[in-house]
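Tutorial, part two.
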Amino acid sequence: MRRAEVRDGIKDLTLSAVGVQYISESCQDAIKTGNHYQSLTLGDASTQGFRTERAEFLDRVDFRGKKVLDLGSNLGEMSRGARARGARLVDGFEYDPYFVEIADLVNVHNNVSRVSFYRRDITDPSIYGEPYDIVLALSVFIYAGKVVDRLAEITDVLVLETHKLHGNLEETYIDPVSEYFPFYEVLGETEWGTIHDAKERRAVLVFAKSDKVLRATLVDRPPASTPSASKVSKDGRETFSTDIDLGRTRLYQRFFERFSGGTSADILAAVAEEPLELDTLSETDEFRRAYAGWTYWFLFLRGYLQYRAAGAVDPDNVYLQYLRRYFGPQGSDPSFSRLLADEAAAATAVERRFRDLAHFEGAGTSAYAPPPVSLVLSDPPRANQPVLITSSGERIEPRQLDGWHRLFAAKVFGVARLPAEVIRSDARVGAVLAAIEHFSYDGDVVELSGWGVSPEMALHNAQLSAVGVRVANAEIRPRDDVAAWFADIPHARWSGFHFRGETRGDAQGPIDFAVTVMEDWLPVGRLELPYVPGMFDDPRRPPAPLARRLTGQEDQTAVAARSARSTQALLGPVRQQRDLESIDTALEWGVDTGLLQPSLTRELEGVALTGVGFDREAIEWARAQLPGEFVLAAREPALDVPAESFELVVGCSTLPRLTRHEQRLWLAELHRLTRAGGLVSLSVQGEFLRRFAPPEVTRQLEREGIGEWTRGSGGWQPAGATIQTKDYTVLLCWEWFEVVEYAEGAVDDREDLILLRKE
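Running the prediction step on this input gives:
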């Protein structure tokens, strides 16, 4: 057989293997990767992978003559990319033997030498014995993060791609890795994959043990005056980079007027000698000034001196005590206040701030490359914003400053300039979780009540509008029940709202109402409320006791409003793919959540509708009141329904009620029931609700990608306890369906939406 024929056979075999959808047997259950993850090139043939291109970041790394280790090598494209850029030898560690075999076949076809792949569990510390010049850990930190200490024993350079950023670049990645690799540069940001929107961002960083090694590793490294973190936005907004001239920036003026000194040592000595009585200090006007006064920063440095002497954050550390007793409970420090209930987490958060001070103190004014501070601009600027001056003399007035403590630390220890990431935003639309508990409208007067919570701020101001015209401002009320549900958000008690106002709308037609949550006069959250005539008096609504049991809500108008909102949200992306009038059969998966009926019946009028649910009373009610066929199902599916029966499947809050095992069984069943080309629109408790999860749930999600969060009832999603990351959900569904769209918080402004297509 001629060599060309062998290569053609290898190409055909490889393309055939990649063409069959396959999900890896991951060494953990958190992130499962498919054979469509990376793109492949085989001569004149290629496959389009799930991941977007990352070659530009490899171009910034000098691989010439280096020995490289690629963790989680998948089909080997990053390994071969390093070799193509001059690496003398590359090893790829991959847990799944199937991927190892395909990667080897690609090497043979493409005549790639000195690139080898091995089946290894990268969480096993014992596999790291051989030294490497560079280690690649691209989107595998959930595994590699467990062995950073071992990686530091075999390499001086770690190239890291994060998972999806949630404003946690420093906390989750930079802080733990920089303990072993203290020098780093952020190369930029990547998109996660072709199905995600522009806000799905991940950072690529190069870590090194010394600044000299870092400089030698990077190609075309920007000058030292350029900020090290240049284009990574935490949530995908437009950014630019600069640096702050600390000598011309007059923040912390009251502190430095009181503790003036020639050197940082003089300042620390003055702080150490200042009399301290926390209870007495708390009665002063300066104490109430918080960041604007001198007492906060005095206590911060005094606590740092105690930390430096003890080598740890003791329970009696004065700064920790101050945060616990005064600052955190008032909601003045959102980044810390949520940790008050967790003593270990609170101490860790304080230690992180102190460690930043220690880096500045130990490294001097030039050796330490600190992470950038983040500045969010508003247009136009509001009153009383801090003023910062850049090294070029530009005046910046951010409406939000993330990095107060780092700026202060740099100023104390004589740093002249500090890198900054500036985010342009005319409205910082944040995460606001809200629930409507009463909604009535008679064509003239609208009345609305409920609650709304943000992890960042208390609810001070909200507006109700109809067709874009303001109708009423909110009366803000205390809610002890909401405070109990969100015990780790101290300001959650002031979350109730009530509106009453007159409209000039037409009661005969649909009207779009909206609740906008405001911070000062800037909108930070929005709750859409579509009104459809007749939605409050539809006789087909579930009876009150049943609706209350299924949804947890007492008020029938609230159930109707939620049904309309959820139905429109789930059908919205379907309409972009298909004319609803062309659909003849549909399945409602989870009739017994009580969240879509009768709105779904109204929207899909003329469609042969089948409903499946797990609650006998709900199914019996649906059979008696609604058109269509309704089937009672077991938790593990065994439906007597023919295959490929439906063009459309819609499920609201059903996936969250299932365990991970049951989810897999039902996705396989939905695949069986859906026609080729059919669409499946589901809601999932995912990334939006993750922002509100307590620390123990967040840690479980970071470890496993899926977890349980049981919260109670009263309109706060009693039906399901399962919460899962976007990565987990997308890769789980990808085993059976093409993932068309994923939208955070799109369903009822609390659950994420995932739209699937059967190929």
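Confidence is low (pLDDT under 50) at residues 194-198, 221-237. In part three we will examine how such features are distributed along the chain.
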